[in-house]
Amino acid sequence: MDPISPLEQALHAARALVLADLVAGEVAEADVVSLVEDSIVQRRWWVEQWPDGAAFVAGLVAQDVQDALLDRYGRWPLCPVCGSGDPHALDVEPELGPDPHWVCHKAGVKVASLGSLGSAAGGAVSS
């Protein structure tokens, strides 16, 4: 059996992390999972063109899915930290860098690493 390339490892890891957060938010319906797959296809090309970007692909997939969900369904993931005011989405930081995580810019805090929203605030984060 051939070993899995670093590109495929990065893409599989990105898929798993984003799907974990979608499951935590109870929004991992088939059409939403398709958004993840669409992003993976696009980012595969991107990483093939810039192999050094493999470390950044998970955060980019999360941003792609977040943008696609905003266009179709609304904000995701909603901030579990701020209990008052208008509901707002978390952002992925760094925008282009390794170790992506969800942050609340209103409160100025890191909420969870990408793939760990289920453990943020002790449970699921709703959409």
Write the layout of secondary structure elements.
Layout: H1 6-24, H2 30-49, H3 57-72, E1 91-93, E2 101-104, E3 109-113
Antiparallel strand pairs: 1-2, 2-3
What is the rounded Rg?
14 Å
Range of helix content: 40-55%
Distance between the termini: 41 Å
Q: Biggest β-sheet: count, sense, barrel?
A: 3 strands, antiparallel
Average of the residue pLDDT scores: 90
Q: In DSSP terms, counting alpha (H) and pi (I) runs of 4 or more, how many helices?
A: 3
Question: What's the domain count?
Answer: 1
Question: Structural class, please?
Answer: mainly alpha
* Order of neighbouring strands in the sheet with most strands: 1-2-3
Element pattern in H and E = HHHEEE
Share of β-strand residues: 5-15%
Poorly predicted sequence stretches spanning 5 or more consecutive residues: 123-127
Total count of strands: 3
Shape: globular
What are the salient characteristics of this protein?
127 residues, globular, mainly alpha, 43% helix, 3 helices
Q: What features would you describe in this structure?
A:
- With 127 residues, the chain is mainly alpha-helical.
- The protein has one domain (6-122).
- Helix content is 43%, strand content 9%.
- The protein has 3 helices and 3 strands; from the N terminus they run αααβββ.
- Strands 1-2-3 form a 3-stranded antiparallel β-sheet.
- A hairpin with a 4-residue loop joins strand 2 (101-104) and strand 3 (109-113).
- The longest helix has 20 residues, at 30-49.
